[in-house]
Amino acid sequence: MAGLGTFDFSEFQKFGDDLKAMERAWPKFLKECTEELANRLLAKAVLRTPVRDGDLRRGWTISQINMTSTGAEIEVFNSVLYAAYVEYGHRQTIGRFVPAIGKRLKVGWVEGQFMLTLSTPELERELPAIVERRLERFITRYLGR
After folding, report:
1. Which helix (H) or strand (E) is 110 found in, with range?
2. Among 17, 59, 114, 132, which is disulfide-ready with 78 (CB 3.0 to 4.6 Å)?
3. What are phi and psi of 97, to 5 degrees?
4. Does position 1 have pLDDT exceeding 60, yes or no?
5. CA 17 to chain centre
6. What's the pLDDT band for 106 if we cut at 50, 70, 90?
7. Per-residue pLDDT for 11 more than 90?
């Protein structure tokens, strides 16, 4: 058969190589993206945390990242013992004297501050734009488009 000519597959080969490089870089990208989101959530929660002596604000931390078959997991939490009481609110005994504040308690229920509870949906609203920007940079780095 004559006349079929030749075809240059080099661009297809380069595209395939770029996709392989992108696949190898994906776990690192996923880890970095997850860490950025966790740090943003941490910053929001810290800003919402009331300050008396600073212990509660300093108690916020991020766990080690856990890579799973479906993605990445990371936990933002406060290790201070009373953090949950400040987050969700708590009951107290009216009239009880508290030496730390030098006063008697006047109310039976203290409302929660919802530091993490309010920060989470706020970050979820921002999440699509954050991830889209990072993903566009990632794709451009490997595919140049």
Report:
1. strand 109-111
2. 59
3. -85, 130
4. no
5. 32
6. very high
7. no
Q: Is the pLDDT score of 75 beyond 90?
A: yes
Element (H or E) spanning 141, and its range? helix 115-143
pLDDT value of residue 100 = 84
pLDDT of residue 3: 60
d(CA 101, CA 99): 5
Helix (H, G, I), strand (E, B) or coil at 28: helix
pTM: 0.84
Neighbour-count burial of 42, counting CB atoms closer than 10 A to its CB (0-12 exposed, 13-18 middle, 19+ buried): buried
Do 37 and 1 contact (CB within 8 A), yes or no? Answer: no
SS3 content of the chain, % helix, strand, coil (to 5): 55, 15, 30
What is the token pair recorded at 88?
């969700």
**Cβ count near 119 (within 10 Å):** 21
More confident site: 34 or 1: 34
Element housing 131 (H / E):
helix 115-143
Q: Strand, helix or coil at 20?
A: helix
Q: Rounded to whole angstroms, what are the CA distances from 99 to 58, 117, 122?
A: 23, 30, 37
